[in-house]
Amino acid sequence: MRSFKSLAILTIAISWILANTAWLTIAEEALVGTELIQLLNLLPAIALLLIFIASYRKLQKTLLLLAAAAMTSFALLAVFSDLTSTAAAIKVYEALSGIQGAGASDVDVPSVTSLMPWASAGASIIAIVFLLLSAFKPGLRSEIKRQEVEDNRALWDEQGD
């Protein structure tokens, strides 16, 4: 494959879309992943911006590694966050119970976490792999330099005549 950046952009977009689906259902209220953790809306945007800046070929490897770090943070937040203790979930628990600062243990209402956090984290891990492959593949200039002959004998022969 010539460039993994386009595949990374596609998988980042998929993980961003999956972050905007219902992750937690409390009673009949469905909460979207970006409502639960607002940073999930920002990290893919930062990663995409870094990829587009890296297209100018200034600090390309560093910017792609920073984009991979942003998506790593995205995956870790999606998987390891306690969704029932976020501010949006507490607001729903407060509305259901009438108790300020109520949590999942204070309300006798089932809360169901969907598989979307795992799917979104999986898509972001695939994006991380594509970003790392794109960052560590040899650049166009280094390929041209390898093909370039240091001492062109034909040129010396032409100048000698």
Can you characterise this structure?
α1 packs antiparallel against α3. The chain has helices at residues 5-19, 33-36, 39-54, 60-80, 87-97, 116-136, 140-147, 153-160; strands spanning 22-26, 29-32, 111-113. The chain has one domain (5-160). It is mainly alpha-helical and 161 residues long. The protein has a three-stranded antiparallel β-sheet. The chain is built from eight helices and three strands. A hairpin with a 2-residue loop joins β1 and β2. Helix content is 65%, strand content 7%.
Comma- or semicolon-separated keywords:
161 residues, mainly alpha, three-stranded antiparallel β-sheet, 8 helices, 7% strand, rod-shaped
Write the layout of secondary structure elements.
Elements lengths: L4 H15 L2 E5 L2 E4 H4 L2 H16 L5 H21 L6 H11 L13 E3 L2 H21 L3 H8 L5 H8 L1
Antiparallel strand pairs: 1-2, 1-3
